[in-house]
Design brief:
Blueprint lengths: L3 E6 L2 E6 L4 H7 L5 E2 L5 E2 L12 E4 L2 E5 L10 E3 L2
Parallel strand pairs: 1-7
Antiparallel strand pairs: 1-2, 3-4, 5-6, 5-7
Length: 80
Amino acid sequence: MPDQFTVRVNDVAVAVDRNTSIAAAVMIAGSHCRISVSGEPRAPFCGMGICFECRAIVNGNMHSRTCQMLCTPGMEIQSQ
């Protein structure tokens, strides 16, 4: 795997280093992971997969805990 590659966060290309979490890529993109039921943008909170605030759609898989997953080349990440 290359030392740096591109992922797409909400249709925006983002360059990340190898071993970057998806949650970090979302933050680098200046985006959010999901929208709460009250309409507020939500971002990673606990960073260890317990709070579920970091959930996003990763390569078509809904409710992925982005703080627990590493980016791979060409990955597609969408806020839910």
